[in-house]
Q: What sequence folds into this?
């Protein structure tokens, strides 16, 4: 009932071959790219330093926020007494 129905004979795809009006310009191969180990080490070191700085900023922001909440709580209790 739910089985697909296939045609008896497959229809061949129609082949449309377009020839270019002008020949494509000859491309020169690019020179091989060589990356030195020092460049890779510099990128990894730079990434590690930037990640550490971002983590330090995030931890500092959380610490300042917690200190602000604690001080606000202490000052509120002090005013109500």
A:
């Amino acid at each position: 009932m739910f089985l697909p129905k296939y045609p008896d004979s497959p229809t061949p795809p129609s082949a449309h071959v377009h020839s270019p009006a002008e020949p494509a310009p000859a491309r020169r191969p690019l020179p091989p790219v060589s990356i030195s180990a020092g460049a890779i080490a510099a990128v990894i070191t730079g990434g590690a330093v930037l990640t550490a700085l971002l983590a330090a900023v995030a931890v500092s922001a959380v610490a300042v926020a917690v200190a602000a909440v604690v001080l606000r709580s202490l000052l509120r209790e002090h005013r109500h007494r």
In short: The chain has a mean pLDDT of 84. Residues 37-80 form the longest helix (44 residues). The two ends are 81 Å apart (CA to CA). Residues 52-81 form one domain.
